[in-house]
Amino acid sequence: AQSVTQPDIHITVSEGASLELRCNYSYGATPYLFWYVQSPGQGLQLLLKYFSGDTLVQGIKGFEAEFKRSQSSFNLRKPSVHWSDAAEYFCAVGAENYGQNFVFGPGTRLSVLP
Amino acid sequence: NAGVMQNPRHLVRRRGQEARLRCSPMKGHSHVYWYRQLPEEGLKFMVYLQKENIIDESGMPKERFSAEFPKEGPSILRIQQVVRGDSAAYFCASSAPGQGGYSNQPQHFGDGTRLSIL
Question: Does the pLDDT value for residue A114 go beyond 80?
Answer without folding.
Answer: yes
